[in-house]
């Protein structure tokens, strides 16, 4: 292969002693860069003090169909590299750096905005952190769901890019979390800046489940549970309470 697969990471969990469960994510090489059929991927991780890792989790013996794996990493700053191989040889490597558990996160980008371009795409724009040496940006987005898990989508960009048109995995009436991280070379990724967005909003598919909590003579105390985000189809602006008594028109609050 003439190029490395683009590599990214997601920290799934951090334990009390600072160990992290990290998911490594990559994109398959296009045919023009693979120059053949990729038969396997190889992951190599190391800690800042050259600590040898004994547990590579699911990141061993990766086949051509794999696009992710996970492994535990120690509290120190770590880096992981990924290569792809065909029967003719191995690609160059791409590498990601993961900050140590106790390190202070570097600044995020600023002024993040997202503009719908239609039902199935949006344009994301941001501003670079001032006067800091950057190696790139990563844009992440996923559908916000309560009942089922969603897929994390991501794109790694060079440091001159401050906009991206997102079209992968985007549908109307679904809420998305969009975030951007700045990359600082061996310092790893900085804090993220995040927003929520719909490409198109609609009316909710369900109303809240209302319950009577107490009745006090001429007054009543009500409560309701939030509507699941999958059924909201947009951002809730207000609730309206309708109430009536026999033979009288309804009142609203």
TrEMBL record:
Q: Please list every transmembrane segment annotated in the UniProt record, as residue ranges.
A: none
InterPro entries, A to Z: FN3_dom, FN3_sf, Ig-like_fold, Type1_Cytokine_Rcpt_Type2
This protein's membrane topology, according to the annotation, is:
Single-pass type I membrane protein
Output the PROSITE patterns linked to this UniProt entry. FN3 (PS50853)
The protein's location, in the record's own words, is:
Membrane
Record Gene3D superfamilies:
Immunoglobulins
Q: Keywords of this protein's UniProt record, alphabetized?
A: Glycoprotein, Membrane, Receptor, Repeat, Signal, Transmembrane, Transmembrane helix
List, for all copies, the residue spans of the domain called Fibronectin type-III: 108-202, 206-253
Family, as annotated: Belongs to the type I cytokine receptor family. Type 2 subfamily.
Recorded protein name is Fibronectin type-III domain-containing protein
């Amino acid at each position: 292969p003439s190029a490395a697969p683009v590599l990214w990471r997601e920290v799934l969990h951090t334990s009390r002693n600072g160990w992290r469960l990290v998911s490594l994510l990559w994109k398959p090489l296009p045919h023009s860069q693979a120059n053949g059929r990729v038969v396997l991927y190889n992951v190599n991780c190391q800690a800042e003090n050259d600590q040898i890792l004994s547990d590579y989790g699911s990141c061993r013996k990766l086949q051509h169909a794999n696009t992710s794996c996970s492994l535990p990493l120690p509290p120190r700053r770590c880096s992981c590299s990924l290569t792809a191989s065909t029967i003719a040889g191995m690609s160059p490597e791409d590498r990601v750096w993961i900050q140590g558990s106790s390190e202070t996160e570097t600044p995020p980008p600023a002024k993040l905005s997202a503009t719908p371009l239609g039902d199935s795409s949006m344009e994301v724009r941001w501003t670079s952190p001032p006067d800091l040496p950057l190696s790139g940006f990563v844009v992440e987005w996923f559908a916000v769901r309560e009942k089922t898990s969603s897929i994390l989508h991501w794109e790694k960009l060079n440091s001159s890019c401050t906009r991206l048109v997102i079209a992968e995995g985007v549908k109307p009436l679904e809420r998305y979390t969009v975030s951007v991280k700045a990359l600082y070379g061996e310092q790893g990724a900085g804090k993220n800046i995040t927003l929520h967005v719909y490409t198109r909003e609609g009316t909710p598919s369900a109303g809240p489940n209302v319950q009577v909590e107490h009745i006090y003579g001429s007054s009543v105390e009500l409560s309701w549970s939030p509507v699941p985000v999958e059924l909201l189809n947009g951002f809730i602006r207000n609730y309206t309470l309708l109430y009536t008594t026999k033979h009288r028109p309804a009142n609203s609050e």
